[in-house]
Protein 1
Amino acid sequence: MEIKKYISLVAKKVRIQLLPTIIFFILCVSIRHENIFVTMVEFLSTPAKGGYWFTWSLLHLFLFYYTIQIVLNKFSKSRKIKWDTVFIIFWCITVLLYFMLFMPSKFNFNTPFWAYSSLTQTIKYLQFFIVGILARHYWGQIENIFDSKNFSLFIIIISVVCSLECLKFHNFSLPVEHVIRLVAIYSLVIIVLMFFRFYKDSFSRNTIIGQSLQYIGTRTLDIYLIHFILLPVLPSIGSFLSLYRPNFLLEIVLSLLVSLIVIGGCLIISNILRVSPILSKYLFGR
């Protein structure tokens, strides 16, 4: 990657990731909160940014990727280093940083720098970004693993055991619990990936489900930016669920119902705004 292309890509990502986020962040705070200025300052001083951290952290991920690409392109000419080796090393580093986040007694991530930059959020998800890059490169080998006889059984057992340990049992010390939690996350991600791969024909563009999911996929940024404005505050549902024995299926049904309503509203607003070419470009990066 050349320097000119790098600058062009960064400028484009800054426009796509930051400008819409700033606009909808201000709009959301203005609609949902009374003391607008105080609330904005309060949100900006936290890593989560009132929920609008994702696009900011996503920009960090792209900057990381583009920068590594430039460095690798220079070294690749002399063949002194392989790109996959570099990403594996960075994955190990990000996993280490991930565990450091949960050791407040030894590592202080509560300073204003970490809060305003949201780098703590970036650290939590950078490892998955790197895994995605590696998985795309080694997809053929990964498919062979998925197709092995006992892998699906193994990964399901691991996910169930680790999830139960994290959610209910808590039999280990805190550092070990964080390791188990990370294993649970990875195993659940693998199960989701295996599910969509196994039923890929059902999610193709020739099916209604596939067309719907792919359409929503093209509007992911729109939905993310708008949904904070439309999210309902429903304390009565939480009170209802807490009064009775927890029912996982009931919680899923209620969550899906609210999600579909909010997503539908986001898509309607998105399509209305996209009528304007200017809004389409600067709000959603078209």
Protein 2
Amino acid sequence: MNITKEKILTILAASAASFALIGCGSSSSSAEYDDESSSSVEESSSSQESSSSEETVSYSNSVVVHFSTDYTSSMLTYGNVNDNSFEDAGIDLGSDAFLFANGKYIYALSPSNVTLIDASKLSEGSGAIVKQASIGNSAYPYEIAFTDAETGWIVLNGRSTILKVNATSLAILDSIDVSNFAAEGATTASGVSIKVVDGKLAVLFGRLNNYVPNKPALLALYDAESGELQDTICLKGYNPASMKTNNGKLVVLTQGAYDADYKLPGDETRGIEIVDLKKKTSEFVMTGKDLGAGSTKLALDTIHNIAYVNIYNSYGNAPIAAVDLAKKSTAKSTEIADAEGGFVFDAVSGKLYVGDHAYGAIALYAYNGTDFTKVVEPEGVFPSYSIAVANW
């Protein structure tokens, strides 16, 4: 497939969050936060992050679910964390879907809908689909976080709304209107990530105007039950890409702006930062200058305090790096040429699953901290897009 300059711009623009927030500062909230991780369902079983308490938790089943696409067609594959051979689930999720896990359930967030899949029934094909709900054209749900087994919050990228939903029926229970946060000239006040920490919804916003980040990213804190805004915290970096929880704090990746050649320069406008919710501060652990370039993907090993990011040198050249958050040191991998395929760390198995987008060598790998093992997938699999691990 020929990749034109216009195609690259389209892909980058589609992946960027066209959102903005007008305020930055602290509200009158006097809430205090513990330094321990929340015991919410999201942190105990989500594929996106895990609290350190999971070291003592055991599960009967652990299934990896992998969504791959060429933006026209797609495939959903799955396999046990102890296997290196995946099967085709025979489920069509369209050309775009972000996967998240909550116990045995997989939530596939597509541009206009949410699909709930029972990971224990993936061998049944479409019979594994529990529910599919439309949330409107071009809503672009980006992430879901759970307050408990029955309640989730979804942040939308295409609308100035955060939705509270029933986790099993997908019925909309409530919503938060964030349209007043849209910057002048921006079409929405979309967010890029949402997490539950100590009874709070932490929602990550960028401040872009026509895809240009003119102001640093911003974190808004809401009451997880009522949806009431309680605080905001300014970040150091621009154009946020991802956020993870880590012992009551947040690890945020900001990717910064693309340059004229559609690269992410290694400067101090982007990087990995730690948000202290108790002190209401955010500080860089590593900037793009330290990493050598900007990054677009983040996975977090909370057991060993390691952040995995891709070093986005240019389109098609984004090797993975492990960042020791305590020692502030990095090690780049030569195994993965283009880690734009998404990756996720599973604290139960201790494995990092990463998709290599390298042209002519697309693959899914399992990394155990020492070796990368290529996962055998069905013929016709597409470039990796999103990965989740369901533990129950």
